[in-house]
Amino acid sequence: MKMKNAQVLNDNRDFLRLYRRGKSAVAPVLVTYARRGGVKGRRRVGITATKKVGGAVQRNRAKRLIRAAWREVESAAPYGWDFIFVARGRTPRARMQEVRAAMACHLQRLTAPQPEKKP
Which residue in 41, 87, 88, 108 has its CB near the most CB atoms, within 10 A? Predict the structure, then answer.
């Protein structure tokens, strides 16, 4: 998966850490997990598609759609964050614009600065 300034997450421990401690956002075509604290000056990205998505052909199509959407919205993602994108059952049948729009919305929502809590 060639990406401009992104490293690929491959280690299971990285995925588990993001699932447990990361923030998540859900859309009908995509689930996104995000967590600050990755490599400085880099974005780390992982993409998964379980057997619930379908057979090998459907899973590979879903991952291709997610990778293509990432390439288009990558410049909007901040550095120093880890992201995992999980395909859902609708992803292989979705249009590219739907996946890209969901991803852009998730990135904006998950990486926005948190408002400070008043004591």
Answer: 87
Supply angle C-alpha 50, 56, 62, rounded to 5: 65
Distance CA 38, CA 47 (A): 16
Amino acid at 26: V
Q: Which residues of the chain have pLDDT under 70?
A: 1-5, 38, 117-119
Residue 19 maps to which CATH number? 3.30.230.10
Residue 1 resides in a domain: no
Tokens 């379980």, residue located: 50
The pLDDT assigned to 54 comes to 94
> Domain range for residue 91?
6-111
Rounded Cα gap, residues 63 and 91, in angstroms: 9
Q: What is the number of domains present in the chain?
A: 1
Rounded CA separation 77/35 (Å): 12
Q: Is the dihedral of CA 86, 90, 94, 100 positive or negative?
A: negative
Query: CA geometry: angle at 19 spanning 105 and 84, to 5°?
Result: 45
